[in-house]
Design goal:
147 residues, two-stranded antiparallel sheet, two-stranded antiparallel ribbon
Length: 147
C-alpha cells in the first residue's frame, strides 16, 4: 500500500526545523520526536499556530493537500511524518480504514477477531459486545440493589 521505492523522498529534503525532530525507524517511518498530542500525533508551530507535523511535512515535500482530503497513515503509526506513508483520502474513507484496522475495543482491549465480541449498527458503526454485556450486568445489579 506504500508508494513505490522510486517515489520515496529522502528525509534530508525536509526543512531543517522538521528534520531535527525526526528519527528514521527500521520500518522507514520518520517518527516525530517533538511535541505530540494524546493521540500521539506530532505537532509543530508554524506561523504562530500549532499544525500537525505530518501535514506540514507532506506539504513541504509533496505539495498542498487536496481540498476536502485528509492524510491517512498507511503505516498506522501516528507520529510518522514520511510522505511515502501518507495518502490523501476523504474523511469517510479514512474513517472506514480506521474501522477495518481496529482489532480490539479501545476501552478494555477485547478481541474483535471473534464475531461474538462485536456488535454492528445498521449504519456500520461497531462497538464492543463484551463491554456492553458487562455494562448491562452492572446496571442490572445496581437496579436490584436499589429495589
Amino acid at each position: 500500500m506504500y508508494r513505490n521505492d522510486n517515489d520515496a523522498l529522502p528525509v534530508d529534503r525536509l526543512p531543517l526545523r522538521l528534520r531535527d525532530r525526526v528519527v528514521v525507524t527500521s520500518a522507514d517511518c520518520w517518527e516525530w520526536h517533538g511535541w505530540r498530542n494524546t493521540a500521539n500525533y506530532g505537532y509543530v508551530r508554524v506561523d504562530g499556530r500549532d499544525r500537525c507535523a505530518h501535514r506540514v511535512a507532506y506539504e513541504a515535500l509533496v505539495g498542498p493537500i487536496p481540498e476536502g482530503r485528509e492524510l491517512d497513515h498507511l503505516c498506522t503509526n501516528p507520529p510518522c511524518v514520511n510522505p511515502a506513508h501518507l495518502e490523501p483520502v476523504t474523511h469517510a474513507e479514512n474513517q472506514r480504514r480506521i474501522a477495518i484496522r481496529q482489532v480490539a475495543c479501545r476501552r478494555a482491549s477485547h478481541d474483535w477477531s471473534d464475531p461474538n465480541n462485536v456488535r454492528v449498527r445498521p449504519n456500520g458503526a461497531r462497538w464492543c459486545a463484551e463491554c456492553d454485556r458487562q455494562d448491562q450486568r452492572r446496571r442490572y445489579a445496581e437496579k436490584k440493589r436499589s429495589a
